[in-house]
């Protein structure tokens, strides 16, 4: 006798109940959104350190947040704290100092920077011939111990977890420019698996320093259009010549729909789908056929249970490098076919710069705000169209639109790619 077994698959809807953001435009959603939709730029001439001899002398620095003595991990932590504070207050979740879920933190790879290496080398002695091991030993003792701990990869997550009382072991991750989006994907997956009802997902980066600037210059990745700074980032324009380094942080409080409704939380949006695909084609370039870009967009749309006809807007990765913008156009064209030129797509990086490890989270916040406000921020500095990129990039001026679902693309070095699908509260 045949036995029929009915399998009921419960789809866990993951919603956003709190958001926080800090960029070169300012601190908080209100200031960032008003300036972003007004087409203002936060990119300025660097004043934090001397730029003599550097080809690039501009960045989207967050100089209004003090991190003295300056270090990338310390600034990254302070930026994250501001974003998380805003997100948790908006969500109204938990109790002060106790977040009822895990922390997923996207943060830049951390190592001891050159100013601190010089200091440690002097402390290590060895007549000026200190090895890295000598410096590590010096860093583990006396007044250098706390300083050394600051430069450990997991230190930012540990400090955030202690301050906000997140549950379980905090997760730090780094997937290049897709890092912030990867943190959100991990939170979505944890909630979907039923491991938690809530997750705190953060991307942060405070890496604008001499060493980082030189490294990206050596890769020929940065613009050299220093004057005027606010016109340097030109995504999708024919005369684009590289990205602008920037700092910032984005934080999202994610919850299951059932949990959020049960506690009466206001739902700000839905993370409907996630797609991830990578390749090993090159350390900085993506595969010429665009396969990983195409694949992660298709995966995200399928994961959301949607089709290309449902997507109303694309928050582009849009770095303003010749290679990235060309490949993103190839990917969008391959995925959307005849609709490619009809779906509006804009790049926030034209105004805030490229926040690197924070970019995926920062742009997820902007994508959610785009949906909730029904207003698309522009791609500024679009004066010379590139005929090889025949897409609607929402040039220079924000646009009102009817929006239900949006993609947020994050494509990183090493072929690390993540696409998020975001939408409005389910009916």
Which SSEs are present, and which pair or pack?
Blueprint: E1 14-23, E2 26-27, H1 29-37, E3 44-45, E4 58-59, H2 72-91, E5 103-107, H3 114-124, H4 132-139, H5 144-150, H6 155-164, E6 171-173, H7 179-192, E7 198-205, H8 210-218, E8 248-256, H9 257-262, E9 269-278, H10 291-303, E10 313-315, H11 322-336, E11 345-346, H12 349-352, H13 359-373, E12 375-376, E13 399-400, E14 405-412, E15 416-423
Parallel strand pairs: 5-6, 5-7, 10-11, 10-14
Antiparallel strand pairs: 1-2, 1-8, 1-9, 3-4, 7-8, 9-15, 12-13, 14-15
Helix pairs in contact: 2-6, 3-4, 7-13, 10-11
Family: Belongs to the thiolase-like superfamily. Beta-ketoacyl-ACP synthases family.
GO molecular function, one term: 3-oxoacyl-[acyl-carrier-protein] synthase activity
GO biological process, one term: fatty acid biosynthetic process
Keywords:
transferase, alpha/beta, 427 residues, Beta-ketoacyl-ACP synthase II, eleven-stranded mixed sheet, 2 domains, Peroxisomal Thiolase, Chain A, domain 1, two-stranded antiparallel ribbon, Ketoacyl_synth_AS, single chain, Thiolase-like, 15 strands, globular, 3-oxoacyl-[acyl-carrier-protein] synthase activity
The level-1 CATH class of the largest domain: Alpha Beta
Corresponding CATH architecture of the largest domain: 3-Layer(aba) Sandwich
Mean pLDDT over all positions? 92
Strand content: 15-25%
Radius of gyration over all CA atoms, rounded: 21 Å
Q: Say what the CATH topology of the largest domain is.
A: Peroxisomal Thiolase, Chain A, domain 1
DSSP strand count: 15
Domain Ketosynthase family 3 (KS3): 11-424
GO molecular function, one term: 3-oxoacyl-[acyl-carrier-protein] synthase activity
Keywords: Transferase
Protein name: Beta-ketoacyl-ACP synthase II
């Amino acid at each position: 006798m045949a036995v029929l077994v009915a399998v009921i698959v419960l789809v866990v809807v993951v919603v956003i109940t709190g958001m926080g953001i800090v960029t070169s435009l300012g601190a908080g959603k209100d200031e960032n959104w008003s300036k972003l939709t007004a087409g203002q730029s936060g990119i300025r001439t660097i004043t934090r350190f001397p730029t003599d001899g550097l080809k690039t002398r501009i960045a989207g620095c967050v100089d209004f947040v003090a991190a003295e003595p300056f270090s990338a991990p310390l600034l990254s932590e302070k930026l994250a704290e501001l974003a998380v504070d805003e997100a948790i207050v908006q969500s109204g979740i938990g109790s002060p100092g106790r977040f009822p879920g895990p922390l997923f933190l996207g943060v830049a790879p951390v190592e001891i920077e050159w100013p601190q290496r010089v200091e440690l080398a002097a402390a290590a002695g060895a007549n000026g011939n200190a090895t890295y091991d000598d410096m590590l030993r010096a860093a583990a003792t006396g007044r250098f111990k706390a300083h050394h701990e600051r430069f450990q990869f997991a230190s930012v997550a540990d400090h955030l977890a202690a301050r906000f009382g997140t549950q379980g072991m905090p997760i730090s991750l780094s997937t290049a420019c897709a890092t912030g989006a990867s943190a959100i994907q991990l939170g979505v997956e944890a909630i979907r698996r039923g491991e938690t009802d809530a997750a705190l997902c953060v991307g942060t980066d405070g890496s604008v320093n001499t060493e980082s600037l030189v490294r990206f210059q050596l890769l020929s990745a940065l613009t050299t259009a220093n004057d005027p700074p606010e016109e340097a980032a030109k995504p999708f324009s024919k005369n684009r010549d590289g990205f602008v380094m920037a700092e910032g942080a984005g934080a999202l409080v994610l919850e299951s729909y059932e949990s959020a409704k049960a506690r009466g939380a206001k739902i700000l949006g839905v993370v409907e789908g996630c797609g991830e695909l990578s390749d090993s084609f090159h350390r900085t370039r993506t595969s010429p056929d665009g396969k990983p870009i195409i694949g992660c967009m298709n995966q995200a749309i399928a994961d959301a249970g949607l089709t290309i006809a449902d997507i109303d807007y694309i928050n582009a990765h849009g770095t303003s490098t010749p290679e990235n913008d060309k490949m993103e156009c190839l990917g969008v064209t391959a995925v959307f076919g005849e609709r490619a030129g009809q779906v509006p797509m804009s790049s926030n990086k034209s105004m805030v710069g490229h926040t690197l490890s924070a970019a995926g989270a920062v742009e997820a916040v902007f994508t959610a705000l785009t949906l909730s406000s029904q207003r698309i921020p522009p791609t500024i500095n679009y004066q010379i169209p590139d005929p090889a990129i025949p897409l609607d990039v929402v040039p220079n001026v924000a646009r009102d639109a009817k929006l239900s679902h949006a993609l947020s693309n994050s494509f990183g070095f090493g072929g690390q790619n993540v696409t998020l699908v975001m939408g409005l509260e389910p009916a």
